Amino acid sequence: MAQKNPKDLILDIKDLVIHYETDDGTVEAVNGIDIQLEYGKTLGLVGETGSGKTTTALSVLRLVPDPPGVIKNGSIFLDGKDIMNLPQKELEAVRGHLASMIFQDPMTSLNPVFTVGDQISEVIALHENCSKAEADQKAGDMLEVVGIPRERFGEYPHQFSGGMKQRVVIAMALACNPKLLLADEPTTALDVTIQAQVLETMKGLREKYGSAMIMITHDLGIIAEVCDEVSVVYAGQIVEHGTLVDVFNHTRHPYTEGLFGSLPNIEIKRNRLSPIPGLMPDPTDLPKGCCFAPRCKYATPECEKARPGKKWLSDTHYVRCSRYDEPNFKIEREDQ
Amino acid sequence: MAATKAAPKKRSQFEEVWRRLKKNKMAMIGLAIVVFLVLLAVFADFLFDYEQVVIKQNTAIRLQGPSAEHWFGTDEFGRDILARLVHGGRISLVVGVIAVAIALVLGGTLGAISGFFGGKVDMLISRAMDILLAVPSLLLSITIVSALGPSIINLMIAIAVSSVPGYARIVRSSVMTVRDNEFVEAAKAIGANDAQIIASHILPNCLAPIIVQVSLKVASAILSTSGLSFLGLGVKAPTPEWGSMLSGGRAYLRNAPHLTVFPGLCIMLTILSMNLLGDGLRDALDPKLKQ
Amino acid sequence: MAKTILEVKNLKKYFHTPKGMLHAVDDVNFTIEEGKTLGVVGESGCGKSTTGRAILRLHEPTSGEVIFNGENILTKNKDEMRLLRRQMQLIFQDPYASLDPRNTVSEIIGEPLKLQKIIPDKAKRLEKVYELMETVGLAERLVNTYPHELDGGRRQRIGIARALAMEPKFIVCDEPVSALDVSIQAQILNLMQDLQEQMGLTYMFITHDLSVVHHFADDIAVMYLGQLIEKAPSGMLFDKPTHPYTQALLSAIPVPSLNKKRERILLKGEITSPINPKPGCRFAARCPYATDRCRSEEPKLKEIEPNHFVACHLCD
């Protein structure tokens, strides 16, 4: 197993545990997630609704709503700063400057009563100690960077289409040149052809500015396109992590296999899909053992006894599956 | 086969709502008070004799404060206030509830039609409601009672008509939000007609604001009654009625506050209990809040 | 040769808007054979959902013909239409909005049987509800639960059971899986496939997700701004996409595999407005190959090889 040098890490999350304590019980949203992301790299977090991927991203900026959210355990270091113990004032300086977030719905992340230009320039003025004119100038530059003519600076969000709005949001997120970009399903609300344009823009910008990125998505296709590494999240845990090649071509975890089996793929026409049976476990009442065991076709009674730990398969690739303790265990999906 | 397919503990809609309502303490308190007031009104004749106690004047004991003999004291004509309140409840509660019921049926139907169909129908109904709203409601009631002649029934009609636009607006706006839901389209797709859709899908989903409005409006109907009675257009003089007792006691507010305090408390208690019950019903009728 | 169950001729649906006439569906023609699936793909606002609803007369079409089993249903009166609804059903995209939150599972599934007086008896109706629940894979114990207590996949199964209750022949499926998680999506797609085989259903499958239709449909129709621009059997469309928009659409799908890197055609610009559209090809503004002819003359749908229809001047 490989421990990355902490000096190279923009983001170092260790054993993060986040619960939402509600009247109806405790939702165990994040149950021991580790993320080590190097400067300039892109990590994909894939998982289904309620797997805890958004909560993880929010915690990096300490934006988990509290109450009901409680960070129970873990450490988060962002560019060497201990986020968990940072005073409010410094946290505000981190947000938008060191790391910024792009939300899924561009319609709700823009304020309808301000012009898009003013919204971008406000972010710049807030973080960069410059005059209003300079900030406006830079905001105009940012609009051009994401492919929107500078002339539209004075227009309001409703005058833009969905794809354009998401580009405005991206421009806003990149305005202060953050070292880390947290993108939460940034293209889910968009049409395919528009999604292609936005992804292309994001890739281009990442190369230009060298930001690291966490891409949260449920779409393995998007991961294949933009990420360097992938973490597959299930019930608040990373069940498989590795480079793109590790996870896509040398898939090891049964859940990851199930995700691939569920996807209609235009490259290979199959007669039937092979979905994962059953449902996600109730996050207020997670199984004691492996959370995937009730849906897993390889599960043994052993799997239900204890949560599996990390099993490193190579320097870059680990799974949480106790079946790999057996020397000859293999899942059905073949290496590609 | 059939035996194994008995529905697992299927309760009827009513039982289900009652079970959920029972869990709500405040609603049960509200219900208890409402039942108590209704029982008092129903058995008023057994408690106090109308001719001898309620309307018979005895100036010797006028304006007395609460005592063992007259729990709530006596009014300016020496009549027992408790007795008058119990008998007055008959009129006030009946007028309040019936006026609201008439208004709800009229306003609700108009609002549902205008919200569901939209377009020209909506235009016509909404403008008519706007015209009614433009006239102060008391003035409107006065006009109606004057035209129909003063009587309790006409009084109820007058109060009902003046609150129709309020219901029509509330129902219309909630119908409009529910109307665009896909489940309405789904009902159309299986062949339901407009009346079936409104009755079984739209109105049940508009209940919350309507119930709140109803519980508040009962109170304002009681107060409107007093206003009209004060003008001589409602309940005639010796007949007790909460609103007119309240306004009649105004002149003695400084020296004999119990003349206004007790009717005021009765009205407040009615409103409060209706509100508590209304809120509880609203929650109990909403399956999403089921525990 | 299978029998044609549905034929749509010159279907138009315009909406009045404050800005002008919105051409939601503009002169669409296609046929669906019995027991087959026609996939209708396109991006938001292309009129695919409106087409589905116009066929079922949930939106009254502006003009055109919808011929179902040899009869033009647009000339039917209310009562005849009510009976026809037994044969033509709809499955919705949003399993949250399409079920009345105040009704239980059994009330929702039983509603068509009650309304259409197919099974007026309550106890017998419940029997049928159980039968339908089993068909779509819902556990019996859920019969008295409310939709909000269930997850998206189960809710979608309720929607499917409701559509199946009257034993229809033809079902319009409007994005039935796009609101679901991938693993649940696959379960529902498999269920729909099984039902089709068992009951000989005909589907019109509306979606924005090309990989889903590729998997599911026999024929695919691509729509753009209210018009049908390409239609072909599924395999042919994916092997030989001919319309420039279809090509761009296909290339834009992110593929969950590292092995093949495809050439991506990036479109410039945004979808133009469908309100009072200008003459000429509606895709011309974004098309990399557009000529002056494209901007002035509207291309007609032509058969360029057997069963492959394209509306593009480049094919001349």
Question: What do you see in this structure?
Answer:
- The complex is a heterotrimer of chains A (about 325), B (about 290) and C (about 325).
- Chain A is built from ten helices and twelve strands.
- The longest helix of chain A has 18 residues, at about 190-210.
- In chain A, the strands form two sheets. In chain A, strands 6-7-8-3-9-10-12-11 form an eight-stranded mixed β-sheet, sandwiched between helices. A four-stranded antiparallel β-sheet of chain A has the order 2-1-4-5, with helices on one face.
- By secondary structure, chain A is of the alpha/beta class.
- With about 290 residues, chain B is mostly helical.
- Chain B has helices at about 15-20, 25-40, 45, 50-55, 80-115, 120-135, 135-150, 150-180, 180-190, 195-200, 205-230, 240-250, 260-285.
- The mean pLDDT of chain C is about 90.
- Classes of the chains: A alpha/beta (about 325), B mainly alpha (about 290), C alpha/beta (about 325).
- Chains in contact: A-C, B-C.
- At the A-C interface, helix 6, helix 7, helix 8, helix 9 and helix 10 of A face helix 6, helix 7 and helix 9 of C.
Beta-sheet strand percentage of chain B? under 5%
Q: What is the string of SSEs of chain A from the N terminus onward?
A: EEEHEEHEHHHHEHEHEEHHEE
Assembly state (oligomeric): heterotrimer
Low-pLDDT stretches of chain B: 1-8
Total count of helical runs of at least 4 residues of chain A: 10
* Strand residue content of chain A: 15-25%
